[in-house]
Design goal:
Elements lengths: L9 E7 L4 E7 L1 H15 L1 H25 L6 H15 L1
Antiparallel strand pairs: 1-2
Length: 91
Amino acid sequence: MDIHEEPLIDTEETVETPESKWTIKKRSLFKFSSQAVRKFVTDNTGLLLVLLSQVFISMMNAAVKQLSTIDPPVSALQMILVRTASHMVAR
């Protein structure tokens, strides 16, 4: 069974009124929402990766601006060296 094919948890609740008796079927909302999130992530993996890369680029841009405002400012060559070294370590 695939992770997306898990059945929702069905529960039944009986409500009695003076005139009649009703049976209400309920589905677990938490299980449904987790399946919906999983489906969204698998359907949009590429889009989410692009979004994540934009977040990291924005963080890097903010860090460069912050480093250039300290006294004495960090030179562009030093920032490029650190960025390149961090990429080499990550591999």
